[in-house]
Amino acid sequence: MGSQAVEAHRAGAEVYRGAALCAEKSAELLAEVHLPLGLLPLADMEEVGYNRSTGFVWLRQRKALTHTFRQIGRQVSYAAEVTAFVEDRRMKRMTGVKTKELLIWVTLSDMFVEKDDTSKITFKTPTGLGRTFPVAAFAKEGDDGKTKPKEAPAAAVSVNLTLVVRSRAKLWNSNGGQALQHPRRGSACAATILSPGKASACIYHTRSIPSRRDAITPSHSTTLPNQQ
């Protein structure tokens, strides 16, 4: 029955395929109609469709699954194909969704967020029987219900470091001889870090100091060696 309805509403519908894209679009759909984002925890989805003109939606996953909503201790079964008609804060004429009630699987046909109390959501069977639960029990795992700002993409950071050398400080080479005399107090050289772990600066590693003959004047730029 569900598949026939899908084909009847496929013309003019938005159709998405692929697990990652389907998961994204199903979450967008729930957000658009103001329903909890964890309401349809389907896995390995193969197709999601939404016909906006009729309000008909369908979600197809590789195989049926049973999910436990821990906050309320309820098991819900989702068939390989789930269909419904959606409107603001509501899914009606649903197929493919059942809940366990006193060891018996009961079909759910309608779910809606209460108009007078948006912190409550009600589920009903085709016979009209229903139960009401907190909306928070169906929040997406790890989601607090608040919209989070998108993180800015990582970019190369340019940091200017000024290295001020002590007045007439002396460095010594491995032979114990005087290697280089630094500039007077107030002299400085700039190092620009273009990527993590690498910098250019007029400074020497104290464990590997060149001799006076090979010493580079402080105004010259060289690469900082790695600490050992």
Output the CATH topology of the largest domain.
at5g01610, DUF538 DOMAIN
Number of domains: 2
Tell me, what's the shape? globular
Tell me the structural class.
Answer: mainly beta
Q: Report the uncertain regions.
A: 144-223
User: What share of the residues lie within helices?
Assistant: under 10%
- The mean pLDDT is 75
Strand content: 35-45%
Radius of gyration, in angstroms, nearest whole number: 33 Å
Describe this structure in words.
The protein has helices at residues 2-9, 19-32, and strands at residues 14-17, 45-51, 56-61, 65-69, 74-87, 90-101, 104-107, 110-113, 120-124, 130-134, 159-164, 170-172, 178-181, 188-195, 198-201, 222-223. The protein has 228 residues and is mostly beta strands. It has two domains: 2-138, at5g01610, DUF538 DOMAIN (Roll); 159-223, no CATH class. Strands 1, 2, 3, 4, 5, 6, 7, 8, 9 and 10 form a ten-stranded antiparallel sheet that branches. A four-stranded antiparallel sheet has the order 11-14-15-16, with no helix packed on it. The longest helix is centred in the first third of the chain and has 14 residues, at 19-32. It starts with a helix and ends in a 5-residue tail after the last strand.
